């Protein structure tokens, strides 16, 4: 079976069935989904009823079972990102969710409401930017992994051969994956970031590509998914690959990021930075070893760059990480701690060169992957930098962009694009492309995990820290605070439902969505907002005397501040917590 999926599709809908017609040249296949029995079969074009309602689609994301029954999710809009070794890469930009059922009359009012909420959750995930696919190329693997494969692997379908860590619709495709004959309709979709640029230096043209692959294992949002699970999967794990294509030669440099791989949590409680808690009873070494065993098998040597603060609430995590590496005693793992905030305080970001100089020799030893024009492997990457901070977002992205630039400098010199002695930083046009792409990558990863754009992107875009950048960081931090405390429970539930960590059972006696909240938890925030608003209004609309105005301001000010402290004291009760997955499964 060729490693491609159908590119051009038509969806034909009748009251009884969905027909997905392959419209590629020479194709006669039609995927038939029975809306009553849910059976999936393969047919031919002549079996499509002429009475069916027809429209074009660009891929099948999969199917999911909710309270009302099964739903089919299809891609209805796409945007071309670019061409990757003659393979077109697309971003899915719009989707449709189609019910198998023709009516909802079989549902109670509570079931209808639950089904509406579950649909909103699926739509929420689909509305998060960053779903990419190709019908002819395996986006889930690095160039180096793809070069080390067998002829049998090359003949597998894209779904069979995909790295399951990065197939975000793997759960949705489970029914199609069980039937190899329909795999050409099964489209693996990546979540993360992809950008491609045609660039020129010294009159030599090359393609520069950046791909971030977000793992669907232990996926979730910032404060509800931290550390590792019992299988060794790290939260917010992202594999980032930088690729250069010049005159038939291909070079690649891979880095990873992931949460500190011990069992720890940091649940929101209305404080700006909740204190991280390390689990005191878990077997940390078991999960830690599982994590790095798999990382070494996949990537080779591991060079850990831990960027967290070495004082305050982050210090115990830095110490725990260092202790675990020392206890494991593996020659394949090297640990480097760099207190980013301490070293770069007072906007001294030039001091990042201290870290780059420290790891320069190590980076040269790890090397990069290079294939010449004849397809022969010239060099292989012997390991990766595994960077982390607390969120594996802002500090991490800055360091990754600097390490990637250093590797790119070496690659372009070896390929003959850069002259001897030329610096990449001096190539103004390319530097602008490079910095903006890495900043866009930072924003994409941050929005998918923390709900806002990344911090510190002014440095990534311009090479220096600015006052405007500090103001933007403050604004994004404020939005993060709100989302992390008051909407991330819903976001976490949405991801768990989408990835199959939670399965809907319409026969459940009690819906997890129907747990009522105490009225005070709804009323107090409203009272606080009203009181604060009245305080501001009284200031803006002063009365006849300042005494009168001051009295009103004091009254409403005390009311708002008092309500705020009541909320703060009962912080956990006001936080929007996940409802679909039990707490012990998430810690």
UniProtKB/TrEMBL annotation:
<keyword id="KW-1133">Transmembrane helix</keyword>
<dbReference type="GO" id="GO:0043812">
    <property type="term" value="F:phosphatidylinositol-4-phosphate phosphatase activity"/>
</dbReference>
<dbReference type="GO" id="GO:0005783">
    <property type="term" value="C:endoplasmic reticulum"/>
</dbReference>
<keyword id="KW-0472">Membrane</keyword>
<keyword id="KW-0812">Transmembrane</keyword>
<dbReference type="GO" id="GO:0004438">
    <property type="term" value="F:phosphatidylinositol-3-phosphate phosphatase activity"/>
</dbReference>
<feature type="transmembrane region" description="Helical">
    <location>
        <begin position="521"/>
        <end position="543"/>
    </location>
</feature>
<feature type="transmembrane region" description="Helical">
    <location>
        <begin position="549"/>
        <end position="569"/>
    </location>
</feature>
<dbReference type="Pfam" id="PF02383">
    <property type="entry name" value="Syja_N"/>
</dbReference>
<dbReference type="GO" id="GO:0046856">
    <property type="term" value="P:phosphatidylinositol dephosphorylation"/>
</dbReference>
<protein>
    <recommendedName>
        <fullName>Phosphatidylinositol-3-phosphatase SAC1</fullName>
        <ecNumber>3.1.3.64</ecNumber>
    </recommendedName>
</protein>
<feature type="domain" description="SAC">
    <location>
        <begin position="122"/>
        <end position="451"/>
    </location>
</feature>
<dbReference type="InterPro" id="IPR002013">
    <property type="entry name" value="SAC_dom"/>
</dbReference>
């Amino acid at each position: 079976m060729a490693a491609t999926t159908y590119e051009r599709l038509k969806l034909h809908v009748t009251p009884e069935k969905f027909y997905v017609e392959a419209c590629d040249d020479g194709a006669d296949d039609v995927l038939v989904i029975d809306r009553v029995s849910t059976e999936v079969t393969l047919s031919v074009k002549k079996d499509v009823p002429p009475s069916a309602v027809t429209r074009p689609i660009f891929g099948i994301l999969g199917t999911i079972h909710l309270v009302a029954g099964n739903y089919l999710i299809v891609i209805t809009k796409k945007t071309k990102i670019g061409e990757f070794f003659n393979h077109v890469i697309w971003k899915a930009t719009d989707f449709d969710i189609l019910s198998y059922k023709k009516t909802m009359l079989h549902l109670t009012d509570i079931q209808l409401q639950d089904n509406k909420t579950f649909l909103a959750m699926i739509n929420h995930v689909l509305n998060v930017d960053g779903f990419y696919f190709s019908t002819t190329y395996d986006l889930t693997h690095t160039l180096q992994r793809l070069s080390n494969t067998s002829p049998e692997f090359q003949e597998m379908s894209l779904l069979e051969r995909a790295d399951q860590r990065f197939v975000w619709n793997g759960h949705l495709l489970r029914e199609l994956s069980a039937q190899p004959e329909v795999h050409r309709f099964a489209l693996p979709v990546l979540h993360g970031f992809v950008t491609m640029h045609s660039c020129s230096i010294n009159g030599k043209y090359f393609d520069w590509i950046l791909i971030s692959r977000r793992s669907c294992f232990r996926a979730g949002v910032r404060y509800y998914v931290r550390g590792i699970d019992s299988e060794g999967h790290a939260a917010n794990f992202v594999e980032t690959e930088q690729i250069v294509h010049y005159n038939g030669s291909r070079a690649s440099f891979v880095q990873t990021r992931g949460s500190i791989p011990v069992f720890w949590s940091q649940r929101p409680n209305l404080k700006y930075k909740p204190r991280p808690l390390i689990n005191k009873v878990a077997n940390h070494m078991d999960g830690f070893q599982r994590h790095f065993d798999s990382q070494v098998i996949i990537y080779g040597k591991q060079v850990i760059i831990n960027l967290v603060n070495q004082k305050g609430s982050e210090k115990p995590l830095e110490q725990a990480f260092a202790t675990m590496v020392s206890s494991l005693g593996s020659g394949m793992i090297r640990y480097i701690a760099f207190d980013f905030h301490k070293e770069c305080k007072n906007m001294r970001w030039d001091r990042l060169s201290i870290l780059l100089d420290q790891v320069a020799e190590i980076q040269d030893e790890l090397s990069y992957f290079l294939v010449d024009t004849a397809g022969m492997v010239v060099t292989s990457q012997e390991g990766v930098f595994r960077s982390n901070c607390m969120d594996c977002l802002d500090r991490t992205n800055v360091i990754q962009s600097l390490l990637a630039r250093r590797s790119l400098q070496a690659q372009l010199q070896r390929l003959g694009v850069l002259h001897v002695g030329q610096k990449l930083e001096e190539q103004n046009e390319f530097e602008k492309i490079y910095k903006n792409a890495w900043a866009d990558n930072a924003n994409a990863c941050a929005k998918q995990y923390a709900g806002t754009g990344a911090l510190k992107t002014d440095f990534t875009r311009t090479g220096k820290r600015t006052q405007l950048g500090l103001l933007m960081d403050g604004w994004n931090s404020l939005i993060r605070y709100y989302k992390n405390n008051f909407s991330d429970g819903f976001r976490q539930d949405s991801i768990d439902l989408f990835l199959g960590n939670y399965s809907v059972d319409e026969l459940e006696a009690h819906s997890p969505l129907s747990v009522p909240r105490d009225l005070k938890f709804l009323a107090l925030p409203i009272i606080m907002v009203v009181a604060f608003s009245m305080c501001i209004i009284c200031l803006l609309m002063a009365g006849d005397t300042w005494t009168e105005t001051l009295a009103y301001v004091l009254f409403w000010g005390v009311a708002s501040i008092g309500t705020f402290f009541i909320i703060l004291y009962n912080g956990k009760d006001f936080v929007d917590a996940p409802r679909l997955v039990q707490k012990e499964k998430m810690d």
